[in-house]
What we know:
By secondary structure, this protein is an alpha/beta fold. It contains 5 helices and 10 strands. The chain has helices spanning about 15-45, 85-95, 200-205, 225-235, 250-255, and strands at about 105-110, 115-120, 125-130, 130-135, 160-170, 175-180, 185-190, 215, 220, 240-245. It has an 8-stranded mixed sheet. A two-stranded parallel sheet has the order 4-8. The N and C termini lie far apart (about 135 Å).
Amino acid sequence: MRFGDPPDGDATPGWRDVLIGLRNGVLIAAVALAVLYPFLSHRLWRSPAHPPAARPVAAQPAPAAVAAQPPIERQLDFGHVRPPSDVNRVAAWAVREADNGDRPFAIVDKRRAQVYVFSPGGKLLGTSPVLLGYAAGDLSVAGIGQKAIEDIRPQERTTPAGRFESAPGRNSLGHDVVWVDYEAAVSMHRVRATNPKERRLERLATPTPADNRISWGCINVPVPFFDRVVWPNFGHGRAIVYVLPEQHTLTAFFPAAAGGQPQVLAQASLPRKSNTAKP
């Protein structure tokens, strides 16, 4: 009998059979692992340090497009007010030619010391007496916006005529104003009765415009009218202010109102800082 051979009739397997069985078991296990690996790999190798990739987020629908603004219905409407002919001519031209674009506009009648405020479409929103520059005249003195008040001579205190692109802002005192001609320091603002000798409130209350010339060039408006009509419409963006001449003809400043070609004679830039405004 050879060493390692089982005895005749013994059922116990020998070492050779044991080794063969182990080899076959390893082969079977390897095959099974190869078959199951694709299904078990994501569980075997997942760890907190390597989390699975985030799921893609579904694309969000684009926001709805902003509805286009309806066109402005333009129709001059003075309501129960009967304006002077030159005021009516400029207002009719502005509405007819859409010269104001989509902005509200105002017409300052210097001869009668009156202001008219309109909606973008031409509806009169209100009218009020105003105080204007002490001196009659349609032009500003060059460089007057940089002069100190005490250096401005009486004959230089004019409210210039023309078409102006206004912008809301604040003056050097921090007060709300509507800049009409920023370079010339001319604005529209609430009346200030700081000097009793000037009697500004009394001047606004009289029925005649003869005593409404007192300011250094700015357009003084009664406080209630400024708060109720001017600032709500002119205090949030650009607007157009037409200041009618008092010494020159209307067509000298507004030729298009008489059938000529549109012309912009004055246009103020949006102010970035205050200047020496003339109250």
